[in-house]
TrEMBL record, chain A:
Pfam families, per database record: YCII (PF03795)
Protein name: YciI family protein
PANTHER family: BLL7171 PROTEIN, BLL7171 PROTEIN-RELATED
Family: Belongs to the YciI family.
Domain YCII-related: 1-111
Highest taxon above the source species: Bacteria
């Protein structure tokens, strides 16, 4: 099954994390991503820029509205996503538990419903 | 706010950053000395000597000094500030005045003068208990509790460079009660969040700074600093006493102290990069455990923990291949074990055993978790001399262990041990029985790895293959994965 491990945490700036503080985390995330890759379960890994860089758009009111900033303003923000392909939820939990982000934030484990590849949608649930 | 980190960390290894912090201060001290001066070189040497001494003192006495300073006021933050200030004055003053004969006593005197000044300026009433302790710690004092003593120390230090008086009158640290035990009980007090107990010990007793602790626990430094400060504030505001629990309270209170010390050894290193930090934290955990055993010489579990850490750390060098792949205990080369450390562990274990079985106690003390785990390690280590592993004894010990500490890990270990004594089918039967009682077993990686091994040994390769696959899906460690793949691929078809 394909799962997204969605990392949510306070952003570095809000948490008072300095560039120097980041070094051990880069190393930890590096080791984590390599473990995922070595295990052959990694589909993709993205760490997002701070939410201040977000642009939100909608046409639900008829015309294009472009908003500077995230749709939902929360204290903890979506920070990244690791998409993994593992047999079941237990395996997804085992990997989420090892994610460095779990030490200071929360990780949502969400199964993928549909995925598009080779020109068509595939049901993965 | 994070209090300024102690100017030097007493970490055992020069790679942990404790001494790196000292180096920063050395730089400051030498910069101060770099003014154009004919005797600049001499003074720089003096500065280096001062820095080296300060670093040594920090390494060996940081926790003792901090415990003494914090005990009377319960204000660890203020005590850390005062001690950091004293180290700073030492690095500035010692190059001029020379390193005192008794640097620990000098630092203690300067720090508590500073502490008293702070309290005085705040018109703080807690200066009374502070005085009580300070006056009690004269050179003749030898008991743990505060009591009468000599008052011969200066009350204020206006000019840090003029504290030569402390050279003559500084208290001898060896003669002062050791309050580290009280500090350890404060750090692991039931009112302190279990997650912060180990970090608190690393900082207050060993002098690690928040950054280093944060790295080990993979927590952002500001978050770790905040947790530590919150815990220290709680100690002061909740009035957690710096006392050693009495005999009736001891069993309940000692367990979390031992757990927290063990926590420094059992950090999940898969998440943390940096082999040097790992090695030094293992060494520090051992140092804490042995200190605890020294301070509580009649507690079997304190010796049990010291024994467990000695015997576990003794095998560090034999645990992995040069490529980093995991070698199971019974396949390790005993010549790679550290035999001096094993001997030390055995001595702690004998002491624990003697204490637990001594005559005259009202009722026999049940063997504790750490003592039993250490005894199991000891049986494995005996292979170095006997060439054989006594699985029956291991089974007896492991059965006792699951009674006092019924963790999944202990149960799975028992299944493996039963298999060695009674055959793989018996081990599998134990795992099956366990699965009906512990639903969590289904996602416990070691249970699947053990099941796979036992199935393979029972000539059930198809089921073994399935179990290996299951174990592999739960394995996040690359080296463990390699080993499991290897076992799976060598199954007969």
């Amino acid at each position: 099954m394909r799962y997204s491990l969605l990392l949510t945490n306070q952003e570095a700036q809000d948490a008072g994390v300095t560039e120097e503080d980041m070094a051990p985390f880069r190393a930890a995330f590096d080791a984590y991503a390599k473990s995922l890759e070595q295990a052959g379960v990694l589909i993709s890994a993205d760490i997002l820029q701070p939410s201040a860089a977000t642009t939100t758009i909608t046409l639900r009111n008829g015309t294009l509205e472009v908003q500077d900033g995230p749709f939902a303003d929360t204290k903890e923000k979506l920070a990244g996503a690791f998409v993994v392909d593992v047999p079941d939820l237990d395996a997804a939990i085992a990997w989420a538990e090892k994610c460095p982000g779990a030490q200071y934030g929360v990780i949502e484990i969400r199964p993928t419903a549909l995925s598009f590849s080779d020109g068509q949608w595939h049901e993965l649930g | 706010m994070i209090p300024p980190a102690p100017s030097t960390g007493p970490a055992a290894s020069p790679t942990t950053g404790g001494p790196a912090a000292a180096k920063r201060d050395t730089t400051a001290a030498t910069a101060h000395l770099n003014a154009p001066d004919a005797s600049a070189t001499t003074r720089r040497d003096a500065g280096d000597a001062a820095a080296v001494t300060a670093e040594q003192v920090a390494r060996t006495a940081y926790g003792r000094l901090l415990a003494l300073l914090a005990a009377p006021t319960r204000d660890i933050v203020a005590a850390e500030d005062a001690l950091a200030d004293a180290f700073e004055r030492a690095l500035r003053g010692w190059p001029e005045s020379g390193v005192p004969d008794n640097p620990e006593g000098w630092l203690l005197t300067v720090a508590r003068n500073r502490q008293r000044d702070e309290l005085g300026s705040a018109a703080h009433r807690t200066s009374v208990p502070l005085d009580l302790l300070i006056e009690s710690s004269g050179p003749t004092e030898s008991t743990r509790d505060a009591g009468g003593g000599r008052a011969q120390h200066p009350t204020t230090v206006d000019d840090p460079f003029a504290v030569t008086l402390a050279h003559d009158h500084a208290p001898d640290l060896e003669a002062i009660p050791d309050k580290r035990l009280e500090l350890l009980f404060v750090c692991a007090h039931p009112a302190i969040d279990p997650a912060v107990r180990t970090p608190l010990m690393l900082q207050t007793v060993l002098g690690f700074d928040a950054q280093q602790i944060a790295t080990a626990f993979v927590v952002p430094a500001p978050a770790m600093a905040q947790r530590l400060v919150r815990a220290k504030r709680r100690i002061r505001s909740a009035g957690i006493p710096f006392t050693v629990p009495d005999r009736t309270a001891m069993p309940g209170r000692l367990a979390p102290v031992l757990e927290a010390v063990y926590g420094a050894y059992a950090i999940d290193w898969q998440r943390v990069s940096g082999e040097t930090l790992r090695e030094s934290l293992s060494a520090e955990a051992l140092y804490l455990a042995e200190t605890l055993a020294d301070l509580l010489p009649t507690e079997p579990e304190a010796h049990g923990l010291a024994a467990l850490l000695c015997l576990s750390i003794a095998r560090t060098g034999a645990r992995t291949t040069p490529e980093g792949d995991w070698i199971p205990l019974d396949a390790q080369d005993p010549t790679l074990w550290n035999h001096a450390l094993i001997a030390r562990g055995e001595s702690h274990l004998r002491r624990a055993h003697a204490l637990a079985t001594r005559e005259g106690t009202a009722e026999p003390i049940p063997f504790g978790r750490f003592q039993l785990e250490a005894a199991m390690q000891s049986v494995h280590c005996a292979r170095a001399s006997t060439g054989d592993t006594d699985w029956r004894t291991l089974r007896t010990l492991n059965e006792a262990l699951v009674r006092v500490a019924p963790t999944l890990g202990a149960h799975v270990s028992l299944a493996a041990t039963i298999a060695e004594v009674d055959g793989p089918e018996a081990g599998l039967a134990y795992l099956d029985h366990l699965a009906t009682e512990a639903p969590d077993l289904a996602r416990f990686q070691p249970a699947w790895a053990t099941r796979a091994h036992l199935l393979a040994r029972s000539d059930r390769p198809t089921e073994a293959h399935t179990a290996y696959t299951r174990a592999l899906t739960l394995t996040t460690d690359p080296h463990l994965r390699t080993a499991l793949h290897h076992h799976q691929s060598t199954l007969p078809h």
